[in-house]
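The freezer alarm interrupted the setup, so I double-checked each line after restarting. Inputs confirmed:
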Amino acid sequence: MAFIEKYKKLYMDELLTNCIPFWEDYCVDREFGGYFTCLDRDGSVYDTAKFMWMQWRIVWMFSEFYNKLERNPRWLQIAKIGYDFLTKYGKDDQGWYYFELNRQGQPAKAPYNAFSDCFAVMGCAAYYKATGDEGAKAEALRSFYQYCERENNPKGRWEKSMEGATPYKALGFYMMKLNLYDVLKENLGTNEFDEEIVKTIDFVLNTFRHPDLGVVFENVCLDGSFDLDTMNGRMTNPGHVLEAMWFIMNSSHKLGLKANEEKSMEIILKTLDYGWDTEQEGIYYFKDVLGKPHLELQWNMKLWWVHNEALIATAMAYTLSDRKEFLDWFERIHNYAWGHFKDKEGREWFAYLDRFGNPTHTLKGGKWKTFFHLPRCLYIVGNL
Amino acid sequence: MAFIEKYKKLYMDELLTNCIPFWEDYCVDREFGGYFTCLDRDGSVYDTAKFMWMQWRIVWMFSEFYNKLERNPRWLQIAKIGYDFLTKYGKDDQGWYYFELNRQGQPAKAPYNAFSDCFAVMGCAAYYKATGDEGAKAEALRSFYQYCERENNPKGRWEKSMEGATPYKALGFYMMKLNLYDVLKENLGTNEFDEEIVKTIDFVLNTFRHPDLGVVFENVCLDGSFDLDTMNGRMTNPGHVLEAMWFIMNSSHKLGLKANEEKSMEIILKTLDYGWDTEQEGIYYFKDVLGKPHLELQWNMKLWWVHNEALIATAMAYTLSDRKEFLDWFERIHNYAWGHFKDKEGREWFAYLDRFGNPTHTLKGGKWKTFFHLPRCLYIVGNL
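Predicted 3D structure, all chains:
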């Protein structure tokens, strides 16, 4: 079945008349190439740093919309401005993407983070589909294999952990690996990764969920055990889990893996029960699985992306299963998100709320918010 | 003049009957040596990691109290348990202190942070004064010169900034350098650093205060200019400034540098006006000097240490100057801190409050809170 029409229309309107125009108006650096992502409430630029995750995600998102929504030459041109800038300046002589460039394109932060490569894969793959540029296809695959190579040491020589630290497998790495397979499958039009997709889904579902607690952990020991004695071992990130679960639900559905599709739905329900703030509403950013003190000061804040991913997960689960509990959750999260994150007196959405739902920052984009979670959510929900 | 008797008594009572006993009861690892600092509300250990800053600060504080308050052999024994553990396991073969050890003493996080050496200086110097152990004196001096050597590249090979990033001088480095001179002067009984103390005071006062805005910045460009175009350039940390200013006020007073003593007092007033939350009370953790979006999600939270340092700064300024505005500020901060941070149903003080004054964590110690800011504040105010 399809998702409810009134929401689909609302989400597409928000995408086309609010979110996309904001970024079209303000994010493009027409002087040096690439994008501004540190955009204040009125679109003014409060920092010109070019963070690699944020940059490549814009290439991806505008290319996606060109591929899926409308052959709008302006969107392709915006994607090209980033693609050209990032492939020219973005990586070191080993091909690793830096974490940050300055406005002019000089490297500002070392390539210590494998997710810089990860988001390059997404940008290049969708840009290839938009343009047919074989160089973009090659760069997508090269960056992908580089990302995979970084599995066991994603920070490279910048890793600070030593022999006395417990090494972990991190959910983030594998959920993005799965997402990259899906992005490559779709944009390169290949089924060559299907076997790996199945394996990765199984790995995530069988590795990170604690069998007794039922909760999906962020970090699991290399031997598969759960580390309940440390802050990092007990760390959970409900937004990550919800994002991972809709990746799994979506891929499982496409490949006819019914059991895993259903498993991901159960985990979504469990995660919402676990992550929802029953007093103040909204989903917590982090939680200690045993309720002990969390390492992060901002653990109880409410973040836009967590709620965007939760909206996708619940709307998609409802569409696939027709189970009313998913619609109930969708509407609850929808009311919270549209009531608190959407800027009713301005454009786009706020990023950060305190526990009580008050915006703590006026920014619409920054070091961690770009043209990505919100437009992806609006587009996916609008097209279910 | 001396500070007001009722407060002095209250602070010393709190130190002797609440703060010190809590740490005596729970922080000592009698099995492996060193300390537990991840202590929950009831003193239970929620992580056994041994963070270098937190460890050496305990050695320092118990040694200080042994030196200044009472020749209590239990305190010296607690200091020794840390000193022995840290000098045995704490540093790599180049003599750099790791950032973190595991419970048993194996290195868990690389020595990427110059403040690990910084707090070793403090711990060793006070431990030398307590014991006369020449090895501790030598280690204090060695660690101090190591800290100073790290001035231009404090993160060593773990530095991620590259040529496209604006390099800064950071207030934190120089305020701690000044504090270390003072600690060495006092505990080693030497005047050999007096000239450097004067130079460092001048450097801090003349480098980090913006001449027009009057605000002390956290980061200043190498050429002395202020970077108003970036998040890092506009970063201010009122708690750091208040801490730096009482270091300067105290050292200036001891050396008879009247002009600098007065300058530090003016900056204290300015910082309180600037950093105080006029709606919800308390001092902000961070502020963007132009009011633009702050990089840190938790910028508007209220932290115990900021208020401890503010209490010292205002009480000391009042004692030295007899100006009523400092007493007014002291009482305002006192009422806020004792009303919100002190755990009225348990022991010790909470660390983190949201903007509205609600504790967000139950912890009494952690990765960043140890036996340091609170007991130092209680002791100093109690003895002014």
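Quick read of the result. The radius of gyration of chain A is 20 Å.
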